[in-house]
Specification:
heterodimer, A: 315 residues, Rossmann fold, six-stranded mixed sheet, two-stranded antiparallel sheet, 10 strands, 24% strand, elongated, B: 701 residues, alpha/beta, Immunoglobulin-like, 5 domains, 13 helices, 26% helix
């Protein structure tokens, strides 16, 4: 199971990275994230005159020898980051990407990679879902959390017909204030409702990263003939001539992508396009290195525009 | 509307196929699970109505294309059902073979339509065929292949189309068939009003009466074959400039007038002028607008009588009027014998003749010396000026001279012995009346001219020169009557007497007035005539005009005459203070031998009879230049130039008042062109519409 979602090759790549979110955090334990407090970290901050009660181990003898006063070396506090990774389990995530995998599978891989990274750097991480029946794995920074998370992910099924925006609105309460939130999904909902939900994370001073999972095949309608499009979130069906609606659909899709990207930016949410044409680890690597890869495999200009617009805006 | 092949209409049921396909395609679909349904719904909502409309339009186009193809295969006909046995008729096909039918291949299209009508007519139909006004079959023929072969053999001979005659002949052919069967006359024509003579209602009235007397009366139908594009046409007209007769070795000027009688401007191509085997070339480098004209002048020297011909290069729609020829009679310098009974006048006449260019030689003798003249035939003209009497020997020689065409001018004066002159038989054209100072008379008959004139009027030299000139060149004349066949004839310089049985008789001449005075000119003869003086029309059909003519100024006269019945003649009449009412004398023509003469030319059976002064052509003459031989003036037979100008089309309503049964919307018409265009439009329209719809929908598939 673990090997399916976290194959050794992926682990080998992930070991090279650390996941640090911008800003300082006051975590419950020691970690790699900068804290606003001074403490026992490795990073020197400043010298201060010795006062009674200071730990003598903090005395900087060299500096004290050069002057007539005693100086204390002050170090930055490094703390861990309570985080939550949440996966969209709405029915639309059940879209087949090939013969065996779905968008949800892709989201699972992303989640597993994120959990591995966070746990490995000592961050307590909770795993949950949204867009359907909400379940969660409590936060933990223990190494066993990775296996538990993977087991939890495998129980998820994309079958919800709920509104991702409504579900998102409840997530800020499931993560401590100031914590990190990683949202993975396609977020097919009204962009205005999504923007409203995202604003709540800011109120809780939570740092949010959205992985917008988009399949290349979604950007355009399939070629030729009359197609019965079956809704993955409900039993409804639309029968249309795909050629007749191709342009209108692509325009609507593109508009949505731009609107959601804008909603994220306005809410202070870091937006990452997770195109399924890349592997999950490539997406994570691009996110961590700050280099979002362009999707050259997209040949349709409208689709390319739809998927590239977030990257272009960011760059 | 009926159909030639109605069974094909069963295929109309096939219209169900595109309709069924339309709906079938909509229901058969392949299922595709789809995540982003939200956007698909948005797209569907936005475009649903338009897509439905476009699909419906496509389906309609396909259905219409199918319907059009099926109808075309079934071959619809408007009007009479050609397969109905009741419509079996005797049909006279009248083909307009006038020159204007060359325009836009109208003649070939007429033959094609006639052939189609014959091929698709009901069994039992019989056809007669009239081309121009000549019946190819004397009575209707039921064997279609014979009729079709006859149609295939027809050639455009570009004569003048006379609808009245053609309808008469067509009616006559139908009248020979058995009675009781329906009759129809179908005229295939470009409907040029010219050939229809609608301004002669009495003719049409008689034709209508003749047709109504037939049992049953034929129904006349008109197949109008009009050109599809603006006509490009230049016509050329070669004429000789006004002046004295053409004398051997002297230059004569010719004018080639190029008129744009088409509907579009045209730059004339190269112009060629040929005379006596020598070709000269010229060009007009500017564009001639419709209705406009351009003129080129050529100068040539003639050694003997013959033709001058001019033509332009460069194609237009009507080639028949691109070439023009005129015949030129060349006269030897005339030798004149002056016999002076009054010395002063003889000297004046000699001086006058010397002053006239072109006179070969003048010999002046006294009456007593007349007996020593060996032969009067050495002279073109013998002028007797107040000769009192003649010996018996001389009077006999002069009689032979006159009979052989020699030109004798007898000027009567106070010294003339009137009784003696009247006793001469066959010398003078009329009885001599007693002379007095105020008398003035002139009689011309044959080649002899009798002049009675106030001597005082002749004595001033200024007036004597034109008087002599007139006598020698303009009034020395052998009147010539010409009867022609279907075509018109142009003789070199002079009048045409005698009408063609049809068509235009064209006369040209030069008039040199003796005095400056008001002269009334009129046209005598039945039929219509038009007279131009120096290019200006002065008489239109009827009437007369008084014109101030100037002494010694030659006037170019042109007369077009349209005789009403065969054998008609016309004369140009003048009347002035110095000239009593009478026919204007003719330009001199080549002298003829005396007596009747017949000649055959080629296999045309062209006969010429010399009977006094009369030419008769028993057969229609082919257009072109004709030189029949020694002693006969060359002449040119021309097309009627108006036939190459496509004027206003026939006014059907006007025509209907003459022939009540006439109908331009004939009973058997296949909408071939319209239907073919419709099918083409629909067959091309469907993929174009489909392409356009795909493009507007984005073509994502």
């Amino acid at each position: 199971m673990i090997r399916d979602l976290l194959p050794p090759a992926t682990v080998a790549i992930l070991r090279r990275f650390a996941l640090r979110l911008p800003g300082r955090v006051r975590g419950p334990g020691i970690g790699i994230h900068q804290s606003p407090d001074h403490g026992t970290g490795a990073e020197f901050v400043e010298h201060r005159a010795y006062t009674r009660g200071d730990d003598l181990r903090d005395l900087d003898w060299r500096a004290s020898a050069r002057g007539d006063r005693l100086y204390i070396k002050r170090f930055a506090e490094e703390t861990n980051l309570p985080s939550g990774v949440f996966v969209d389990v709405s029915g639309s995530m059940g879209l087949q990407l090939g013969e065996t995998s779905t968008k949800l599978d892709y989201a699972r891989e992303l989640t597993a990679a994120l959990v591995y990274l966070l746990v490995n750097q000592g961050d307590p991480v909770a795993v949950g879902n949204f867009g359907g029946a909400e379940t969660a794995l409590p936060a933990s920074a223990r190494p066993g959390q990775i296996a538990r998370a993977i087991t939890f992910l495998e129980t998820l099924v994309a079958q919800g017909d709920g509104s991702p925006a409504e579900s998102l609105a409840r997530i800020p309460d499931r993560v401590p204030p100031g914590g990190g939130v990683f949202l993975i999904g396609d977020f097919y909902d009204d962009p205005a409702s999504l923007a409203s939900a995202l604003r709540r994370f800011r109120q809780r001073k939570q740092r949010v990263v959205v992985f917008h999972v988009l399949a290349e095949s979604e950007a355009t309608l399939p070629a030729g003939g009359t197609v019965a499009f079956q809704d993955l979130e409900s039993d409804s069906e639309i029968i249309v001539d795909a050629a007749s609606y191709g342009a209108s659909y692509a325009t609507a899709f593109s508009d949505y992508c731009v609107a959601f990207r804008t909603a994220c930016e306005e809410s202070g949410v870091h937006y990452v396009r997770a195109s399924t044409s890349q592997t999950a680890v490539e997406t994570i690597a691009a996110f961590l290195t700050g280099k979002a890869r362009g999707d050259e495999t997209m040949t349709n200009p409208i689709a390319r525009e739809a998927l590239e617009s977030p990257r272009t805006a960011r760059s | 509307m009926t159909f030639l092949h109605p069974l094909f209409l069963i295929a109309l049921a096939g219209i169900a196929v595109p309709i069924a396909l339309h709906f079938f395609r909509r229901k058969k679909s392949r299922p595709v699970p789809w995540a982003a349904m939200r956007f698909l719904r948005q797209a569907a909502e936005a475009r649903k109505r338009r897509v439905k409309l476009e699909d419906l339009l496509l389906m309609l186009l396909r259905c219409l294309a199918l319907v059009a193809v099926v109808i075309a295969l079934a071959r619809p006909w408007w009007g009479t059902d050609p397969m109905d046995s009741k419509s079996v008729k005797d049909i006279a096909l009248v083909i307009d073979n006038s020159a204007s039918m060359e325009i836009d291949s109208a003649f070939d299209r007429a033959l094609a339509q006639a052939s189609q009508m014959v091929a698709e007519s009901p069994q039992g139909s019989a056809f007669s065929l009239v081309v121009g006004k000549t019946a190819v079959f004397a009575s209707p023929v039921m064997n279609r292949s014979v009729v079709l072969d006859a149609l295939a053999d027809l050639k455009l001979d570009a004569t003048t189309f006379a609808a009245f005659d053609a309808l008469g002949v067509a009616g006559a052919t139908l009248d020979t068939a058995k009675r009781g069967r329906l009759r129809e006359i179908v005229v295939f024509t470009d409907a040029q009003a010219m050939g229809w003579k609608l301004d002669a209602p009495d003719r049409w009235e008689s034709l209508r009466e003749a047709m109504e007397s037939m049992q049953p009366p034929p129904e006349v139908k008109l197949r109008s074959i009009r050109p599809r594009n603006p006509i490009v046409n230049l016509s050329v007209d070669l004429s000789r400039d006004p002046g004295p007769p053409v004398i051997e070795g002297r230059e004569a000027a010719f004018t080639l007038t190029i008129r744009n009688v088409g509907e579009t401007a045209r730059v004339p191509g190269k112009i060629y002028f040929e005379q006596g085997g020598k070709v000269s070339e010229s060009a007009i480098g500017y564009s001639v607008l419709p209705g406009g004209s351009a003129v080129a002048t050529f100068v040539a020297e003639f050694e003997e009588s013959g033709f001058a011909e001019a033509w332009i290069e460069g194609g237009d729609d009507v080639s028949l009027d691109d070439r023009s020829a005129i015949a030129v009679a060349v006269f030897p310098p005339p030798q004149v014998l002056l016999v002076e009974g009054r010395a002063g006048l003889g000297i004046a006449a000699e001086k006058a003749l010397d002053a006239i260019s072109g006179v070969g030689g003048v010999q002046r003798i006294s009456p007593l010396e007349l007996a020593r003249v060996a032969a009067f035939s050495e002279y073109e003209s013998v002028i007797l000026i107040e000769v009192p009497r003649l010996s018996a020997l001389v009077s006999g020689a002069l009689r032979r001279f006159v009979l052989e065409g020699g030109h004798l001018v007898t000027i009567i004066g106070e010294r003339t012995d009137v009784d003696f002159m009247n006793s001469l038989e066959g010398v003078l054209p009329a009885k001599v009346e007693s002379w007095d100072e105020g008398c003035e008379r002139k009689v011309i008959r044959g080649s002899s001219t009798l002049v009675t004139y106030p001597i005082s009027a002749l004595e001033p030299k200024a007036s004597f020169v034109p008087f002599i000139y007139d006598l020698v060149f303009a009034k020395i004349d052998v009147p010539l009557d010409v009867a022609v066949g279907a075509a018109q004839m142009e003789l070199p310089r002079g009048r045409l007497l005698g009408g063609g049985r049809t068509g235009l008789v064209d006369g040209r001449g030069i008039l040199v007035p003796r005095f400056s005075e008001d002269t009334r000119l009129s046209l005598k003869g039945r039929g219509e005539g038009y007279v131009w003086l120096n290019g200006e029309k002065i008489i239109h059909k009827r009437g007369s005009r008084v014109l101030p003519l100037k002494a010694e100024v030659p006037i170019n006269i042109k007369i077009d005459f349209y005789p009403e019945t065969p054998g008609e003649t016309y004369s140009l009449i003048w009347d002035s203070a110095s000239q009593p009412w009478g026919a204007v004398p003719q330009g001199r023509l080549h002298p003829f031998a005396v007596g009747e003469e017949k000649r055959a030319v080629g296999d045309k059976g062209l006969f010429i009879r010399r009977d006094g002064a009369h030419l008769e052509f028993d057969l229609p003459l082919p257009p072109g230049s004709h030189a029949l031989g020694e002693g006969i003036p060359p002449f040119v037979v021309r097309q009627d130039p108006r036939e190459t100008i496509l004027g206003e089309p026939l006014n059907e309503a006007q025509l209907a008042s003459y022939l009540p049964s006439i109908s331009e919307s004939d009973g058997m018409r296949e909408p071939g062109h319209g239907l073919a265009l419709g099918i083409l439009f629909l067959l091309l329209g469907e993929p174009v519409a489909a392409w356009w719809i795909r493009k507007t929908r984005g073509g994502m598939g």
